[in-house]
Amino acid sequence: MLIYQIYPRSFQDSNGDGIGDLPGICSRLAYIRSLGVDTIWISPVFKSPMRDFGYDVSDYRSVDPIFGSLADLRRLIDEARQLGMGVMLDMVVSHTSDQHAWFEASRRREGGKDDWYLWADAKPDGSPPNNWLSVFGGDAWNWDAARRQYYFHTFLESQPDLNFHNPAVQQQLLDEMRYWLEFGVAGFRFDACNHYFQDPQLRSNPPAPGAHTHALHPYGFQQHLYDKNRPEVPAFLARVRALLDEYGAYSVAEVGGNDALQLTIDYVAPGRLHCAYSFDLLRATHSAAYVRSVLERLATDLPGPGVACYALSNHDKPRVATRWGVGREPGVVARQMLALLACLKGTICLYQGEELGLPEAEVPFERLQDPYGRRFWPTFKGRDGCRTPLPWDGGPHAGFSSAEPWLPMSSTHLALNVAAQEADPDSVLNFARRAFAMRRAHAALHAGDVTFDGGPTDETELGLLRFERRAAGSALVCLFNLGEQALAVPAPSPERMLLSGALRKEGARTLLEPNGFLIATLPS
After folding, report:
1. pTM value > 0.85
2. CATH superfamily of 449-521
3. Where are the CATH 2.60.40.1180 domain residues in the chain?
4. Whole-angstrom Cα distance, residue 453 to residue 466?
5. CATH superfamily entry for domain 2-96+167-438
6. Tell me: the pLDDT tens digits for 466-502?
7. Active-site choice (125, 182, 246, 495)
8. Is 191 designated active site?
9. Cβ atoms of 432 and 361 closer than 8 Å
């Protein structure tokens, strides 16, 4: 399955307010389908005060007017279905906005919602109940003067965490999901699902040895044993899966943290979610040995029908063309990354603009919107660099909007606009279409097994990632040079070559340049 992630604020504006919306997405469905997309994942469009740009939900059953209406969403689902695509919603259920009616009732101890959120008394000296910290910086506990207790927030103070130990909370969230399944969505991407439960004893986290030398801020100084990754999560995911199965719907889990690979495996065990992705391929580390270790672990350890979901870019991390291509031409890096994505086993996820080879954008501090970035600037510049508007053409505001966009249009993106790339048969966009068409055409790529050599070799250490994909009647070899120097590789006959880049002849040798790749069929 190929999932295309849309960050709706930055995809296409239809009404001239500088913010992308649902009608704008509708107007571009043919483009999305041309990539071979099976399912569209839309980052949150629920009603929200937008402190975290939709990841702070104030009403799970309403569309925020910024994005349109329920009728617009229904039209999008219907028109996408006519083109053979489903629409997945981003379910953010580890927390809500502090403007959600549930939180207002909970802080007033009304409506039976006293403990729908994680509340705790202060210590005798008035300090928070333990040492838990926020991902976005500072204490994870915020004092509420009305209730005279602290509430827990993994992210912003305005994003209080729900108390999943309360059965009524779990049931209510399942009811919210059922509402959208009845509405016609194809499934859900579950945001931050390893944050659903916290230790009921509220034990403090132990320190992470040595982390203070490299962590961005004190959140990284702890081993997060008690505020996330709790053993209760899989049982709730099993309840979610049972609901999804009633509707034939699909699910993707987002898993973060140092134990992400093991959690990914746990969360897609039989009877749980369909697939999950971690941040292991969203980091700056990209040596052949490292990438192989991630792919090999997932290829060998995933149980039953569960599969990995691979993402190389998303709305939270710097774009892969920059992150894995420091000092290199983004288009060359992008082609290799698209080819790699097309060859991976499982579900693959393409983030808007990745098919254009967009590099990370530079957003000046005065235009920065991301609260995470504003807090830690300039050491960390936030997430806005991967969220800038998509360039559609060479016109005003690159065809994204008739007004000034909510984030500045990157000047480095203008020459990479869709219209210009459509007209160039050798563009990154048209390469992406060929790569994903190759994936669909070969059973070994979309349904086959993956195998590696017996162990890491000298070639791996030099930068060569090599694996084979096999299915009944189909076998392919996939080579990627992730290193710093050209590498000699076996040359397949021309009729066996499917896709290649940065490949050259030097006498009798075939050399794969840095960021080069070669995908070829193997003799049966």
Report:
1. yes
2. Golgi alpha-mannosidase II (2.60.40.1180)
3. 449-521
4. 8
5. Glycosidases (3.20.20.80)
6. 999 999 888 999 999 999 999 999 988 999 999 999 9
7. 246
8. yes
9. no
